[in-house]
Design brief:
heterodimer; A: alpha/beta; Ubiquitin-like (UB roll); 3 domains; 9-stranded mixed sheet; 3-stranded mixed sheet; 14 strands; disordered N terminus; B: alpha+beta; Nucleotidyltransferase, domain 5; 5-stranded mixed sheet; 14 helices; globular; FtsQ_C_sf (chain A); FtsQ (chain A)
């Protein structure tokens, strides 16, 4: 301002001085000042940096998808890309290899999975398929995996039948835990397997196996075990002889009977049943003729008249 | 219209609110520069009741933004052109905000002009042998008889500096003591109301809330005087651009404050007139070559005075440094004589210690302490403001004594009249406030 005042007197200096006088003020304008203060407000800055882009993104996307044709085009594009990837040869499955299964079981597996090769590996739900395969009676466990080269490998551990079960549906095979393995057909086909029968026999297979082990001395005489009242076992021998075993301690009772048999050759006598249900009172039931004979001999001893 | 006295309580509350929020700005509106510091209060040392806290009250806050700008529209420490000053304040505040990275809403301002006048008041009240309560302190403060301060004057500071209970004087806090008669001495500083209104209006136009106003003579004394000087008695002379502030401290209280409306700008003006050069050039050679004691060496040291008038002879002049000193010295002497007159009027020679501390940007003239000791008295030193946390190196010079003093003032203000409760009998009769107060006091 001073220089401007001096300007008329010193004309040559005037311009330079005026330039100096009108040097731009560094002060921000009111709007700029307010804007800068607004930008320094934390909430506003947060809104601007995160809220606004978020809003624009969501708004733009929802506007785009609010049009039907856009939505269809988008879904179509996604699906086509998906198809392209799935149909690549790297993901193709051509055949199924079944390990550890007998022929019949393998055929069953093929039938229930009913896969129509070639397939994409994306279409195979291995967990679900494993559930289906293990649902078969003869399969104990199964593992499925897709091997290199497009092979679906199914590894199966089969159930091993240890017992024949004569139930309402005829002869069936059970494994050592009592799980059904499959129908047995004829008895002669499984001559080596012992036989169990009766209501609830399949629930006590482990005990039955122990009993069969304990009854080894009987060899050919043993016909099988029968579950009585779904709670205890009868050992059925040929000729209709029975050993009635108690609910608890059946194995010990049978061993005892085996010992008695070894000592006095009990079972080869004319006996209908050996009742071991009460451990402190083993009871023998004689056949009708034997009982008559027994009573006759007794009457001789006592001198009773008949 | 901004009524200072009525709004002092509101400004105190606003300052507390700002400290709660943690950010407050201090604004030194000077004649040659406007400085803005942004303080962050980190909550440490809050509620330190016992006199002096750690680091002499400098802990608890940190300077996070500092900016200085050339002052426009301020003359003699008073606002002369509103819009220009407003723009200058905007510049400083914006730059400080930018450095701090945070928005500031509350500002505490100081200025040096507006003809401050000091008054010593005393009041006396009888308390009948009871314990002195806060209410009694309020009563004795309101019992002070206020002199006629004149039309258009406002009370800027009103600080109780001394309490006496019966025969015991020199109590800083009489609460809880027992006596019969409580007397108090109070220092009151009044200034021109228009100057304050202009400043308040400028601050308001910048979208800021005024959370306090201080006299720059007072706050530069707070910053530049060390603790024992404030305790024993000392004068702080803040030589600014347009005005020179004088404040006398005793027992950690300001007991006198005044302003001499002359400063470094007048020295620059003398050089400009004496050497026929523009003010900017005069300012430049003053800061580079200025002094107050001419020696033989200075006769040989020639200063080039360039110019762009186009007149070759005019633009290629040279002056010796002795000539420059010859121009500066009478004006500096005149300023110091005026300061001397102020100190004499205040009765400074009766103080136990007569330390004089020169601060402010104009106190950087080489040799000023020697000249000042010849005029003002033997105990003269140059003072720089205290160091506060986070203060940039650029604003640690003596020119920023009042800005730094404002920081200390913001963090630890002295008790003022309006910090105490209004005594019950001063409420309007039958007012609901009186009833509420009675309930509060009795239950």
């Amino acid at each position: 301002m001073r220089s401007v005042g001096a300007a008329p007197n010193r004309a040559p200096a005037g311009r330079a001085a005026r330039v100096q006088a009108y040097r731009s003020d560094p002060a921000p304008s009111r709007m700029k000042y307010r804007l800068e203060r607004l930008m320094l407000t934390p909430l506003f800055r947060f809104t601007l940096r995160f809220g606004l882009p978020f809003l624009i993104g969501v708004g733009g996307a929802s506007w785009y998808f609010s049009v039907d044709s856009n939505r269809e085009a988008f879904v179509g594009a996604v699906m086509s890309v998906r198809d392209q990837i799935e149909s690549r040869p790297e993901f193709r499955v051509d055949l199924m290899a079944i390990d550890g299964a007998s022929e019949g079981v393998a055929a069953d597996v093929r039938e229930i999975l009913s896969l129509d090769f070639p397939l994409s590996s994306f279409d195979l739900d291995l967990d679900e398929m494993r559930g289906i395969v293990t649902g078969l009676d003869a399969v104990k466990s199964a593992s499925l995996r897709i091997k290199q080269g497009g092979v679906l490998e199914v590894s199966i551990v089969e159930r091993v039948p240890v017992v024949l079960w004569r139930g309402v549906r005829g002869l069936e095979l059970l494994d050592e835990t009592g799980v059904l393995v499959g129908p047995a057909g004829k008895r002669a086909e499984h001559a080596d397997l012992p036989i169990v029968a009766g209501t609830g026999a399949e629930t006590a297979i482990p005990e039955a196996l122990e009993l069969f082990a304990a009854a080894a001395p009987l060899e050919g005489k043993l016909r099988g075990l029968e579950r009585i009242g779904a709670r205890r076992w009868d050992v059925v021998l040929d000729g209709g002889q029975r050993i009635l075993l108690p609910e608890k301690g059946a194995v010990q009772a049978l061993e005892r009977a085996m010992a008695m048999d070894g000592a006095v050759d009990m079972l080869s006598r004319d006996i209908a049943a050996v009742d071991l249900r009460l451990a402190q009172r083993p009871t023998l039931r004689l056949n009708h003729d034997a009982a008559q004979e027994y009573w006759r001999i007794k009457s001789f001893e006592t001198g009773e008249k008949r | 219209m901004f009524e200072l006295y009525e709004s002092q309580r509101a400004m105190r509350n606003m300052r507390k609110a700002a400290m709660q929020r943690g950010v407050v700005a201090v604004l030194d509106v000077g004649s040659s520069k406007i400085a803005c510091l942004v303080l962050r209060f980190d909550g440490t040392e809050r509620g330190a009741d016992s006199g002096v806290g750690s680091l002499a009250g400098q802990a608890g806050f940190r300077v996070i933004g500092a900016a200085t700008t050339r002052s426009r529209g301020v003359r003699f420490g008073e606002i002369a052109a509103m819009s220009e000053t407003e723009r200058a304040i905007r510049t400083a505040v914006q730059a400080a905000q930018k450095m701090a990275g945070i928005r500031v809403d509350h500002v505490i301002a100081c200025f040096s002009g507006a003809e401050p006048r000091s008054y010593g008041l005393d009041g006396k009240v009888s308390i009948d042998g009871a314990m002195v309560t806060e209410q009694d302190v309020a009563r004795v403060l309101s019992a002070c008889d206020v002199p006629d301060v004149g039309h258009g004057r406002e009370v800027l500071h009103a600080q109780p500096v001394n309490f006496a209970l019966d025969h015991r004087s020199g109590l800083s806090d009489p609460r809880g003591q027992i006596g019969r008669e409580l007397t108090c001495d109070m220092h009151m500083l009044t200034v021109n109301a228009q100057a304050i209104q202009n400043l308040a209006h400028c601050v308001k136009r910048c979208d800021l809330e005024l959370a306090g106003i201080a006299s720059s003579a007072y706050v530069s004394g707070v910053a530049a005087l060390v603790e024992d000087e404030q305790e024993l008695g000392a004068a702080c002379i803040d030589m600014g651009g347009g005005a020179t502030g004088v404040s006398i401290f005793m027992k950690k209280h300001m007991i006198y404050g005044d302003t001499v409306p002359m400063g470094g700008d007048h020295v620059t003006g003398d050089i400009s007139m004496g050497l026929q050069i523009p003010m900017a050039m005069a300012e430049r050679i003053k800061t580079f070559y200025g002094g107050v004691h001419a020696t033989g060496m200075d006769d040989r040291e020639m200063i080039e005075i360039s110019g762009d008038t186009g007149d070759w002879h005019h633009d290629r002049r040279q002056v010796s440094r002795a000539e420059l000193i010859g121009i500066m010295r009478p004006r500096v002497e005149e300023i110091l004589e005026e300061v001397r007159a102020c100190l004499d009027a205040a009765g400074f020679e009766h103080l136990p210690s007569q330390q004089i501390v020169l601060t402010g940007a104009a106190s950087q003239i080489p040799g000023l302490d020697g000249l000042a000791s010849r005029i003002l008295g033997s105990q003269v030193r140059l003072g720089r403001p205290m160091r506060v946390h986070g203060l940039p190196q650029a604003v640690t010079g003596p020119g920023f004594a009042s800005a730094v003093g404002m920081c200390l003032f913001a963090a630890h203000p002295q008790d003022e009249w309006w910090d105490f409760e209004i005594p019950a009998e001063r409420y309007a009769p039958r007012s609901i406030m009186k009833a509420m107060k009675w309930f509060r006091d009795n239950w």
